[in-house]
Amino acid sequence: MRLVGHTYDHVEISFQHYFRENLLITDCLGPFRRWEIGLVHRWLAVIVVCRLLVFCFPSDPASAEAWSSETRWHNPLSACDHDCAVYFSFGRFADEKMSNSFGFSGGFAPDSGDYVAPWNYDYQDAFLISGAFSRQILTVGSWFSAELEGGIGQRFGDMHATEVWGAVYLRWHAFPWNDYVRTTIAVSTGLNYASRVDELEFLRDDNGNSSKLLHYLSPEITFALPKHENWELVLRYHHRSGGGNVFGDSELFNGVTGASNFATIGVRHRF
């Protein structure tokens, strides 16, 4: 690969050309074009994810049939059978746009900035302690699962609201290094209700709107030792907002765009 030019833009263009022509991931990158992701490390991250998915998904007919045969639905009203979990966490309010936190530069919101690493977040003196119960409702082999989660959290410091939420989590389990560190990534969609709209949350909305009921979108990554896979270290981005740049001026969420983000660390026990 040859990098041309001496400016960052030239390097970026060369990377993009190389990836499109040589790694054949045009389809994978398609959805990201409308988010205008242009920085080199965003492309690298997308490539890593695409390569992992290609590596982990079954490609031959026998594996595909096994995938189908290993699909299992779980009755959420039955006794727990290694498909239930409890989760506890502690977090601090981060005054950052979600698009910045995950590197979608210029993406979800027109004024989004560049990627901001967790250690550079604009942390405020507001905190969240929370707990949740979850139950798997679908598993596909050892690759994928879907879970129902209900949780409650209490803010303190400069924020005082009590939160409750219900959500569906979609979780990916298949990573090539799982023999050494069991890893999963998951993302949620659901509803979050706060007992009040704290001032810090109100000030983050671009339109000066507020709502006690908001969308709950809280991605997470977990790590566990293979010999103790039922105990997970959980890094979660606890996020509630109206998703104004996704859902539009939704009456359900009173047209709210931004709301609150807590960078949290926690532990989950599966049983």
CATH architecture of the largest domain: Beta Barrel
Question: What top-tier CATH class of the largest domain fits best?
Answer: Mainly Beta
The count of domains is 2
> What is the tally of helical segments?
7
Oligomer state equals single chain
Radius of gyration: 20 Å
Overall geometric form: globular
Distance between the termini: 49 Å
Q: Main sheet, how many strands, which sense, barrel?
A: 10 strands, antiparallel
Mean pLDDT: 78
Poorly predicted tracts of residues: 1-48, 106-112
Beta content comes to 35-45%
Query: H/E order of the elements?
Result: HHHHEEHEEEEHEEEHE
- Total number of beta strands: 10
| Helix fraction bin | 10-25%
Structural class: alpha+beta
Structural notes for this entry:
With 271 residues, this protein is α+β, with helices and mostly antiparallel strands. It folds into 2 domains: 8-56, no CATH class; 84-270, Porin (Beta Barrel), CATH 2.40.160. Helix content is 23%, strand content 37%. The chain has helices at 8-22, 26-33, 40-56, 61-69, 98-101, 199-203, 244-247; strands at 71-73, 84-94, 123-140, 144-157, 162-172, 182-194, 213-216, 220-224, 231-241, 260-270. Strands 1, 2, 3, 4, 5, 6, 7, 8, 9 and 10 form a 10-stranded antiparallel sheet that branches. A hairpin with a 3-residue loop joins β3 and β4 (144-157). 28% of the residues are buried.
Secondary structure blueprint with pairings:
Blueprint lengths: L7 H15 L3 H8 L6 H17 L4 H9 L1 E3 L10 E11 L3 H4 L21 E18 L3 E14 L4 E11 L9 E13 L4 H5 L9 E4 L3 E5 L6 E11 L2 H4 L12 E11 L1
Antiparallel strand pairs: 1-3, 2-3, 2-10, 3-4, 4-5, 5-6, 6-7, 6-8, 7-9, 8-9, 9-10
